[in-house]
Design brief:
heterodimer; A: mainly alpha; ABC transporter involved in vitamin B12 uptake, BtuC; globular; B: 362 residues; mainly alpha; two-stranded antiparallel sheet; 14 helices
C-alpha cells in the first residue's frame, strides 16, 4: 500500500463521521427544524457506541447502540422544540451542553480502557482493483452506510411522496397543515433521523476513528457538520463533497504535524523548502485549520444571498402551533 | 395522551416570574433521581450541592469569584439574544480578552504603576470586542451565520492561548509547565476582604455592568431599539433602526464584557495566564441568560445559582465521591427545564387523553 493510498484512507475515515452527522441534520433542517444539538447527539453516540461494544463485545451492536442513543437523545430536543414550541437555537444549545455533560459522566469509567474496533469488511475481487479497490471496497460498515445514506436521502427527498411531504412541511408548515399533514409527526421523525445519524457518526469516532473513549472527543465535529449543511445549500450530494473536503483538511494538517523532514531530503529543493516552512508552523495553528476553513467556506457560500435564499427551507427554526 | 399548546392572548405575568423557580425545582427533583441512579443518597447529594457551599465564609468568596464571569458574560449576551444576534462564542471572546489584558504584565513586567491595572482592563475589553467583531462583520457584510462563525472562533482562541502559554509567553522559570509568569502586584485585582477569602473587586464590575445594561434596556431609546429589532426586524426597519448597526452594537458590547470577565479571572483568582483558563464560563453563561429571563437583574441571581452548581460539583466530589462532571449535567438539565417552563408564559398547555379527543370529535 503506497503512502498516498494510506493518506486517502485516513481522509475517508475522518470524513465518514462528518458525512453521517451532516446528512442527518440535512433531513432535520429540510423539515424546518434547526437542531443545533448535533455535537451533543454525536458525543452521546460516541459514548453509547463505546459502552455497548464493551458490554456485548460486539462492535456492530456498539454502532447500533450509538445510533439508538442519538435518536433517543434527540427526542428530548423534539419534545421541547416541536411540542412545547421553545426557541430552537437555545434548545439545540441545551442539547449540546447536556450531551457533553452526560457523556463525560457516563464515560468516566471508560477512560484509558481499550476499545473494540469495527473491522473493515473486505469485498472480494472488487477490493483487488488497483488504487481504488482498497479505498472503496475494504472499509468498515459505517463507511458503506454513509455513502449509501447520501444517495438514499437524495432519492427520498426528491423522488418520493414522503420526501415531498417532508420538504413541504419545511417550506410552509401552515399550508402543509391545511392539507391535512401532521406537521409535528413529520418533524419528530425528521429530528429522530438526524439524531440517529449523528449518533452513528459519533459511534464511528469511538469504534473506528480512535477506538477509545476520550472526553469531548467530537471536538467540534457536530458544529462542522452543521456548517456542512449550509455549505451544501441543503442538497444531499453536495454534503459528500463538503465532508471529504473537511476530512482532507483535518488529515493534511495532522500529516504536516507528524512530518519528519529528514525523510524528505530526496524531494526537489523548492518542495522541500515549502515542507520545511509548513513544518515550522506551530502545531496549534495547524490544528485550528479545520475551524478556520469552516468560517471561510461559510463566508464564500453565504455571500451569495440569492443562492442561499432559494435553498434554505423557508420555515427553518420557526415553531408551529396550529390554529384550533 | 397528547399534549396540546395554544397561544395565550397575553403573556402570563405570573409564569414569567414563576418559570425559573419551577425549572430550578424540577432540576433538583431530576438531580435527585440521577443521584439515586448513581447509588448515592439524594438528600446528602443535594445538601452538598446547594447548601454546603453556602455555610462557610471562604466558599461564599469562591461563589462570588465564579459568579463574576458568569454575570458579566450573560449581561452582554442578554443584549445579543434580545436583539436576535446569536453570539455563542463568548468563551472565545473571554479568552481573547484575557490574552489582550495579560499582554501588559507579561510583556512589560517592569511597567508597574497605578494605571497598569486600568489599562489591562481596557485592553481586555478591546480584545474581547475585537474578537466579537469578526462574526458581526461576517454577518453584516457576507450574511454569514453568526452562530457557527462565533462558535468556530472559540476553538481557534483555545488553540491560540495554548500556543501562547506553551510558546512565546511561557514562564522560563516555570519548570516547563505551560503558563506565563505570575503577574506583579500592580497587575492584580485587589481582594475585598483578604482576611476572610479570595473574592476580588471583579464582582463589583459585574454588578455595575448589570445595573448599567438594565438601565439601558429599561430607560433608554437604545433599549427600545434592541427589543424592536429582536422581535420584529421589519417594524424596526420602518422605525429607521439599522439591523446591521445593532448587530455590531450587540456583539461589541457582549465581546467587551466577556473580555473583561477574562481579565478579571486572570488578574484576580488565577494571577497568571495558563492553558486551563477556558473553563466553559462562556457556555454556562448562555444558561444564565435564559435562567435570568434575558434580564440583567435576573442574570445576577441566575449567575449566583450557576456558580453554586460549580462549587456544589466540587463539594459533592469531595464529600460523596460523585464526579464533578455531574455539575455539567445539572447545568444542561437546568437549561432544558428553563426553556420548557418558559413555554408556560406564552402558551396554555392541555393534556388531551384519547377519550377526551374522541368526545370533542363527536
Amino acid at each position: 500500500m503506497g503512502m498516498f493510498e494510506a493518506i486517502l484512507l485516513t481522509v475517508f475515515a475522518a470524513a465518514t463521521p462528518l458525512l453521517l452527522a451532516a446528512i442527518g441534520e440535512l433531513v432535520t433542517e429540510r423539515s424546518g427544524v434547526l437542531n443545533l444539538g448535533v455535537e451533543g447527539m454525536m458525543i452521546m453516540g460516541a459514548v453509547a457506541g463505546f459502552a455497548f461494544a464493551q458490554i456485548t463485545g460486539n462492535p456492530y451492536l456498539g454502532a447500533l447502540g450509538g445510533m439508538v442513543a442519538g435518536a433517543l437523545f434527540s427526542l428530548l430536543f423534539a419534545f421541547l422544540a416541536i411540542t412545547l414550541v421553545t426557541n430552537q437555537v437555545a434548545t439545540g444549545l441545551a442539547l449540546t451542553i447536556l450531551g457533553l455533560g452526560l457523556s463525560g459522566l457516563w464515560g468516566e469509567a471508560f477512560i484509558g480502557v481499550p476499545g473494540v474496533k469495527l473491522t473493515p469488511i473486505v469485498i472480494p475481487l472488487l477490493s483487488d482493483i488497483p488504487l481504488i479497490g482498497r479505498l472503496f471496497f475494504a472499509q468498515d460498515i459505517l463507511f458503506y452506510v454513509s455513502i449509501a445514506l447520501v444517495f438514499a436521502v437524495s432519492w427520498f427527498l426528491f423522488k418520493t411522496k414522503a420526501g415531498l411531504i417532508l420538504r413541504s412541511v419545511g417550506d410552509s408548515h401552515g399550508s402543509a397543515h391545511a392539507l391535512g399533514i401532521n406537521v409535528a409527526r413529520v418533524r419528530y421523525l425528521a429530528v429522530m433521523f438526524g439524531g440517529a445519524c449523528a449518533g452513528l457518526g459519533g459511534a464511528h469516532l469511538s469504534l473506528v476513528y480512535t477506538t477509545q473513549w476520550i472526553e469531548n472527543m467530537t471536538a467540534g465535529r457536530g458544529w462542522i457538520a452543521l456548517a456542512l449543511v449550509v455549505f451544501a445549500s441543503w442538497r444531499p450530494l453536495r454534503i459528500l463533497l463538503g465532508a471529504y473536503l473537511f476530512g482532507a483538511i483535518t488529515i493534511l494538517q495532522l500529516h504536516i504535524q507528524a512530518l519528519n523532514l529528514s525523510d524528505l531530503e530526496f524531494l526537489p529543493a523548492p518542495i522541500y523548502g515549502l515542507m520545511s516552512v509548513l513544518k515550522s508552523i506551530p502545531s496549534q495553528f495547524l490544528s485550528s485549520l479545520p475551524y478556520l476553513a469552516t468560517i471561510v467556506v461559510l463566508v464564500l457560500i453565504s455571500r451569495n444571498r440569492r443562492l442561499t435564499l432559494i435553498n434554505t427551507p423557508a420555515m427553518l427554526g420557526q415553531g408551529f402551533v396550529p390554529d384550533r | 395522551m397528547r399534549i396540546e399548546v395554544s397561544r395565550r392572548q397575553m403573556p402570563s405575568r405570573a409564569f414569567a416570574y414563576l418559570s425559573p423557580a419551577i425549572a430550578l425545582a424540577l432540576t433538583m427533583v431530576l438531580g435527585a433521581v440521577v443521584f439515586m441512579a448513581l447509588g448515592k443518597s439524594p438528600t446528602a447529594a443535594l445538601y452538598s450541592y446547594f447548601i454546603e457551599p453556602l455555610t462557610e465564609t471562604w466558599s461564599l468568596h469562591e461563589l462570588l469569584i465564579k459568579a463574576t464571569p458568569l454575570i458579566l458574560i450573560s449581561v452582554g449576551l442578554s443584549v445579543c439574544y434580545l436583539s436576535n444576534n446569536w453570539n455563542i462564542g463568548a468563551e472565545g471572546q473571554y479568552l481573547m480578552g484575557a490574552v489582550a489584558g495579560s499582554a501588559i504584565p507579561v510583556l512589560m513586567p517592569e511597567f508597574q504603576s497605578f494605571i497598569t491595572l486600568p489599562l489591562m482592563l481596557l485592553l481586555a475589553m478591546a480584545g474581547g470586542a475585537a474578537y466579537a467583531a469578526i462574526p458581526a462583520f461576517l454577518k453584516t457584510r457576507f450574511n454569514t451565520n453568526e452562530i457557527l462563525t462565533s462558535l468556530m472562533l472559540v476553538y481557534v482562541a483555545q488553540l491560540f492561548v495554548d500556543w501562547l502559554v506553551r510558546g512565546p509567553w511561557r514562564n522560563p522559570q516555570g519548570f516547563s509547565f505551560p503558563g506565563t509568569i505570575t503577574f506583579n502586584d500592580y497587575a492584580l485585582l485587589p481582594e475585598i476582604f483578604p482576611a476572610s477569602g479570595r473574592a476580588n473587586f471583579g464582582i463589583l464590575f459585574a454588578l455595575v455592568a448589570a445595573l448599567l445594561v438594565w438601565l439601558m434596556l429599561r430607560k433608554t431609546m437604545k433599549g427600545f431599539e434592541i427589543r424592536v429589532l429582536g422581535q420584529n426586524p421589519r417594524a424596526g426597519r420602518f422605525a429607521g433602526f439599522s439591523a446591521a448597526k445593532m448587530t455590531f452594537f450587540a456583539f461589541l458590547l457582549s465581546g467587551a464584557l466577556a473580555g473583561l470577565a477574562g481579565i478579571i479571572e486572570v488578574a484576580g483568582a488565577v494571577q497568571h495566564l495558563n492553558e486551563k483558563l477556558s473553563a466553559g464560563y462562556g457556555f454556562a453563561a448562555i444558561i444564565v441568560v435564559f435562567l435570568g429571563r434575558l434580564n440583567p437583574a435576573g442574570a445576577v441571581v441566575a449567575g449566583l445559582v450557576l456558580a453554586l452548581t460549580y462549587l456544589g460539583g466540587e463539594a459533592a466530589q469531595i464529600s460523596l465521591q460523585i464526579s464533578d462532571k455531574s455539575a455539567r449535567v445539572f447545568q444542561g438539565m437546568l437549561l432544558f427545564l428553563v426553556l420548557a417552563s418558559d413555554t408556560l408564559i406564552h402558551y396554555r398547555i392541555r393534556f388531551v387523553t384519547s377519550g377526551a379527543a374522541a368526545q370533542e370529535a363527536n
